[in-house]
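Just wondering, can you check both lines?
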Amino acid sequence: MSEAQVSDMPLVHAVNVHKSFHGVEVLKGIDIDVAAGEVVCLLGPSGSGKTTFLRCINQLETIQGGRIWVDGDLAGYTEKNGKLHRLGDSHIAAQRREIGMVFQRFNLFPHMTALENVMEAPIQVKGVRKREAKERALALLERVGLGERCDNYPAQLSGGQQQRVAIARALAMDPKLMLFDEPTSALDPELVGEVLSVMRELATGGMTMIVVTHEMGFAREVADRVVFMDAGIVVEQGPPNDVINNPQHERTQSFLSRIREENEDYAAALVERAEAEKL
């Protein structure tokens, strides 16, 4: 591929990506582009391949077919004479440093304070001086609304606060791209909003984001584009209002109908609980 072709690429360029586990094909030829500054939400039922695709972008999984470029770099490989050659671990680690990832579970170091959790990677991975890392970490914790909780340990923080620390930790590496794998799914409902608020702020600031989520309101409000996946393929994609409000494919319609029913059931349960508490 020529330098001109590489320079014209979107920030993420995935072509015909295949991935299998134990003989079961999870990704069946995924083609997705994400432009710099774009927010893309991946929707779909459990087992559709959304998380696997994120993990392939960040090279936590090795693809078995196709190619993924991030900011013009071929992820995990170098190409010579039309053949792919796997990069060494150090090169892969260097590529991964450019990508921030926030998981369902917060994965904070329990023996470190919020501040220490955010400082750790810049110091250990990028060789940033401790003083500089501390100043940056404090600023990031302030940005996610936790400036006053910097000396708390994870066990002293709510789930929403821990997830916001995890976001600050990912941002501390100054990534070109942020990946979110259902970042609110492990949270109590009343804590979801505080995490989504931080993500909205990142999107407004121009961060390129790929978000796996079931939060339809967030996808409708924040995403530039929604991609619906099912059974390892991209079923349909487009602006949020088109895909969420007027889905064209039967599988998308069925999924969104089920999500709406679940939300209605949950809302009814909240009303019922509130009424019971009044008695």
